[in-house]
Amino acid sequence: MNSHVCKCEPFTALADKCLEEVTKYIDKKLPDAETKESHGVFAFKTDAGEFVLNRQVPEKQMWLSSPVSGPSHFDYVQNRFYEKNKKIGLSELLEKEIDQILKQ
């Protein structure tokens, strides 16, 4: 058995759950948004541009490319994905940016 694969399985499950929750959130908040989902990558287009969220298994991070705030790398810390440089969680950042877009 490959020990590298075993170490990544818990992260992959967490990342997949995160992608699923973000997909549901975007479907609810932006029902007309064009979305794409494939192999650990979720992308959606807004009036501000395209967001891309993907899991980075070797780094055990979620990466977000945002037309609003630029690139962010989130580590799984204390039961959430957290961006230490911006001092914000993934959910909080997406909610803030989507709300900002919807107000325009």
Describe this structure in words.
With 104 residues, this protein is α+β, with helices and mostly antiparallel strands. The protein has a single domain, classed as Metal Transport, Frataxin, Chain A (2-Layer Sandwich), CATH 3.30.920.10. It is 39% helix and 37% strand. It is built from two helices and seven strands; from the N terminus they run αβββββββα. The protein has helices at residues 3-29, 90-103, and strands spanning 35-38, 41-46, 49-56, 61-66, 70-77, 80-83, 88-89. A seven-stranded antiparallel sheet has the order 1-2-3-4-5-6-7. A hairpin with a 3-residue loop joins strand 4 (61-66) and strand 5. It starts with a helix and ends with a helix.
C-alpha end-to-end distance: 52 Å
Helical proportion, percent range: 25-40%
By CATH, the topology is Metal Transport, Frataxin, Chain A
Low-confidence runs: 1-6
> Helices and strands: which structural class?
alpha+beta
What coarse outline follows from CA principal-axis ratios?
globular
Number of domains: 1
Number of separate strands = 7
- Largest sheet geometry: 7 strands, antiparallel
Range of strand content: 35-45%
Widest sheet: strand order? 1-2-3-4-5-6-7
Helices, by number, come to 2
Alpha carbon gyration radius: 14 Å
CATH H-level superfamily title: Frataxin/CyaY
Known CATH architecture: 2-Layer Sandwich
Pfam family, one: Frataxin_Cyay
GO molecular function: 2 iron, 2 sulfur cluster binding; ferric iron binding; ferrous iron binding; ferroxidase activity; iron chaperone activity
Organism: Hexamita inflata
Keywords: Ion transport, Iron, Iron transport, Transport
